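Can you give me the bound-state structure? Components:
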Amino acid sequence: MRENLHRFFRAARGAGVRLSPAESIDAMRAVSKVGFTDRAILRDTFLLTLAKTQDEKKALGDCFDLFFDQPEPEQPPEAGKADEQDPSGSNTASDSPGGGGQAEGLGALAQMLLAQDRNAISAAIASAANAASLSDIRYFTQRGIFSGRILDQMGIQRLRDDLDNLTATNPALAERLTNALDGLRGTVRDTVSQALMLYGREEAENLRNEILRNAPLSRIEPRQVEQMRHLIRQIARRLRERYSKPRKRQRRGHLDVRRTLRRNAAWGGVPFLTAWKRRHRDKPKIVALCDVSGSVARVSDFFLLLIHSLHEVVDDVRSFAFSGHLIEVSGILESKSPEEAMAEIMSKVGFGSSDYGSSLADFEDEWMSTITPQTTVIVLGDARSNNLDPRADILRRIAERSKRLVWLNPEGRMAWGWGDSEMPRYSTFCSVVRQCATAKQLERAVSDIVASYQ
Amino acid sequence: MAENRPLASIEAVESGLAAQGYIASRQIATAVYLSQQIEKPILVEGPAGVGKTELAKAIAAWRGMKMIRLQCYEGLDEAKALYEWKYAKQLLYTQILKDKLGEVLGGAPTLEAALNQLHDFGDVFFSKEFVEPRPLLQALEQPTGCVLLVDEIDKSDAEFESLLLEILSDFQVTIPELGTVVAVSPPTVILTSNSERDLGDALKRRCLHLHIGFPEQKLEERIVESRVPSISQTLRRQMVGFINEVRTLDLKKLPSVSETIDWARVLVLLQAPELGHEVVKDTLNVLLKYEADIEATMPQVSTFIAKASRQGVFG
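Here's the bound-state model for the whole set.
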């Protein structure tokens, strides 16, 4: 049973639950106290000792159900239980009885298949899977390799030889054996798929996320949008965890005389306890101007989603969207789901040809006062103003009023300044200009902005 | 005390807590049982008012142990949680013993000899006598064990968490001047958190992690039954059904078990025979704590009552 527990821990790691050896030892101790008899209690025990967050509890619960609902075939003595749980219907599909008698001179595997000894077969698959270290499987591309290895371990070579011999001597038996072999292949494939589900989930997800993180946001396919939203939420959570730490740092070395005296009033002002001056850090204040025309729209979408899911870290976000003219969208984003909000924003200002000059003018007329010396202004756009007046002078005034002005451009640096791009004229007034085309770059950019307040 | 023997089984925990009026779900009982068996603290997370603190109180009452409570807040430090030197007492004693000190030191011929003599009894002033034990140290010093409740650990600073680690894993603390204080008998430690901030992995690793959510309807009915016995069965079923419906709404603060119990008491006090439209409207403020939430729920009240009563018929 210990072996099984170890396998379960490995499966749990595959499901994305972080387990240290110490935790698995604790779990073992706990399990030894409650025993294996009641599955509900066993499940609770694992959830209590191994999982550390609500998400992990869910993942672990699913993993537990998957693992123990279809137990990986047991060793022979315990195989009696496997009867009702054996997933392989295919072995038993052929219902011709007996047949062990004709099987003399055949390999062990052939005999087993002909005898239709399901328990023995499951046990053989299990031990072959162990020998092939099936629990190391990580990617779906490895399925073939592992199936092959398991079959090799079970002695498929011998079976093939037997099959060749039999085709000549006993065609009927050979046909039965071929059918049985197909069934066996199916079962092994199922075993491998299940193992992949148990042990490889996290790895596969990591791989997919990594690809997604580096994909250009403006060109992802519609079916990936949901995944991307999920990814953006993950990024937001990570940033929140990193930056929502207490924002009071003690400054050792600068005595806070007033607080020291007050604290030591009980001892007649003799300073037993010292109080030090603290430096208070501001929470980030952000004003975001997002271009929602054409290809930039999608990047803006994800950017707004990210910025607005950072409310624990960021004190105050005002977002504005523009293409031909500019409107404030903070209210829409806060009151609606991301999809609805984006649809509404697009219907209000989207689909126009972008005019940076008049949009900036709109901003200056109505909202210039929102910018304080603590504000970071983020402009997200490709700076392609269709040869209209870029009004870089307004951007200069914005830069002067604000703490920092950051320009995020989804286009590559190569394209800046080519055609109708006004990037070089704008970039002179920006504190930072960076490319921002993928989720990874987006995370970097936002992380840097928030970090500048720490 | 008879209750102090090791717990026999999970069922024993369940019935023991029930005797104190705390109806525990299977998972809670398992957590309590395990924490006794493998001597680990329990970290309880969940929304406000689901009985996290009550759990600790119930355990203490059931096992006949003292409960020591440490309420966490921002800025809580060693001096308030663990121990503190009684400075005033130390000062006072040195003042009173001044003459005595003078006598003792007066015999010394040189400054160096005086200093050496002073060293010999210098430690007197940093002894157990002058330590003011705060909750954590108190908990370790209880001869018969106790329940230590570290409430709302998420409100404290990250540094305080690190301070707790030694206590949580080894049930001991180290005071530089005195050495290590080991627990006389390991206390049952319960930490609660409202997930205001994420706790460190080191802390989580040392605890059993128990999440208490809103209870299932059946369980909640039993809780109400045990806390407000005077309520009639139909009304109980209706009100719990109603609250479960309210929880499906998207509210700022969902009503939790403590609100359910309060509401049950109010309904009994008003002598409401069953859940009527008027009664609910008048008492909705017991259940919901935000004006916006009440406004959001108001239009739904009739539907919810109808649903809750239907459940009563078939349930």
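A couple of observations. The beta strands of chain A are 248-255, 276-280, 285-291, 316-322, 326-328, 375-380, 404-409, 432-435. The first helix of chain A runs from residue 2 to 14.
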